[in-house]
Structure formats: C-alpha cells, structure tokens
Amino acid sequence: MVMVIIKERLSIRQIGSLLANAVNMKTSPVCVYGSDQVPENAVRSSSFSDCLACNMYQIAEGRITGPVYAGNDPSHLFCRCMGGPAWFGYRGFDPRLPGLMSTGSEAAKQDGKHLKENENIACETYKAVGEIKTLGRYVVMRRCDDFQEDPGVKCIVCFASGEQIRDLCALAHFGSHNVFNLISVPWGPACATLVTYPAGMAENASLSQISIGPTDPSARGWLPENCLAMGIPAEIARKMANDVVRSFLAKIDNVS
Predict the structure, then answer these.
(1) pLDDT in tens, 168-191
(2) φ, ψ at 166 (rounded to 5°)
(3) Is 212 in contact with 230 (CB distance < 8 Å)?
(4) Given CA atoms 29, 78, 80, 48 in this order, what sign does their dihedral have?
C-alpha cells in the first residue's frame, strides 16, 4: 500500500510567520493584494506619509496597524513621486520622467536626479519595464499576521538585515535549479521593488523572480542603512515557507 500524505496549503499568516521566524526577523512580513473596495478599517496611504514604500516599512515595524490602501483618486495624493500612479498601473508614465531621472527636464524646468546617464537611456529603461496593469481599484498592504483568509495576495515583502536577506536568498535557492535568474536587484523606485515587480504587475517582470533592493537612493530617507527589502511573488514565498524545515535554516548549527 502506498501512503499519500496530503499537505495542508499554508495560509498567508503561516507563510509570513515561517519566513520571519526562520531568520529571526525583527519586522513582520507585509503582503500586497488588489481590491475593488476599501477594506474595513483601512486607512489611505497618504494619510501617513507621501511615500507608499515608507509606509510599508512602518507597517512591518508595527508603527502602522491595520490595512493601508492607495488608489487613483484625483482628489487625494497618491504619493510624492511623479511616476507613482504609473508604477501601479493607474496611468502611463509622464513624458517628463526620463529627463527628471537623468540630466534634467527643460519642459518641467526641473533639475535631473542623475539616476540615468542620459535621457535616451532613461527612455529605454521605462520601455523595458513594459505595460503595467493594476491589481484592482485599490492596492492594499497589510501585515501577513492580520489575515484569517487569503484575499488574493500577490506578493510578500520582507524588511531585514543583510545577513537575514542573504539567508532568505539561500532558502529561495534551496528548492530551485535556477542559478542566475531567480533573484534580481532591479532598477526602479522602492515601490516597484516591493510591489510592481514581485506582484507581476509589470509586463516584463517575471512571477518566478524575487526582487531585492531598493536601488532607489531616495530610500535613504526612511530605510535604515543596515536594512534591505525583499519582494517575493506569493507562490515563491509559499514554496520557501514550506522548505524551511528541510533546509539549512532548520539545521543552522551544522552550517559552516
């Protein structure tokens, strides 16, 4: 007789707990999903600060409790960035952005951020991202341990030290044969690293790839210098959580 063991599908709460406990994270994993309605007791992201990614870090720290949402409401600020709504699929990229990201925009009379060598490279970079689709009327962010049922979580975000992110990367590689393309450190704003790419919103972003970052220098204003973020597509996060007990993290004393 062949014995079949049926594993119960891990909940979002369990996934977050397993990943956090595996590397002794000081913050709580945050999950992201789309909704056509504002969740009960949810607060608009711009009510806390004008940076959505910063608010996600505050959720992870526990300084913001309950769900946080953002949407394309002209009567309310989405975020401080010119490209913010575009990175969440609510509109196209402003044609002034390539100039702003490089050497300056004469049309907008703004100095450039010098994040790209020139405007042509910046233009090609935005094209490389591809079309961005919304997750829904609203994008919702909340701690994984807030959930009883999965509302359709698209990605899970971990904020952790370099050592902890290193171990989470090793855990991701535990059950994968993909040596070079499983984990990426992509260009873009912090919110793209945390949400747009791992949630599969960008046409040319892969749902089989984890994003590490942010590479956006403006994150220096809110992210501690010893902290990194990891945006994990939901199914990869579930696989990682399932693998914890069989991986080196359960046998850490034996790793040299």
Answers:
(1) 999 999 999 999 999 999 999 999
(2) -55, -45
(3) yes
(4) negative
Residue with tokens 């972003």: 205
Can you tell me whether residue 160 is helix, strand or coil? strand
> Could you give the maximum distance between any two Cα atoms of the chain, in Å?
76
Q: How far apart are CA 143 and CA 156, in angstroms?
A: 9
Q: Which two tokens stand for residue 128?
A: 């490389």
Output the six-digit token pair for 185: 């450190």
Distance from C-alpha of 159 to C-alpha of 123, rounded to nearest angstrom: 30
| Residue 187, both tokens | 């260009």
Between the two ends of the chain, the Cα-to-Cα distance in Å is 41
CA angle 159, 78, 83 (to 5 degrees): 80
- pTM of the prediction? 0.92
Contact in structure between 119 and 99 (CB atoms under 8 Å): yes
Q: Which residue has the higher pLDDT, 105 or 188?
A: 188
CA proximity to 139, closest of 37, 250, 29, 253: 37
Q: Could you give the CA distance from residue 37 to residue 69 in angstroms, rounded to a whole number?
A: 10
3-state DSSP helix/strand/coil % of the chain, to nearest 5: 35, 15, 45
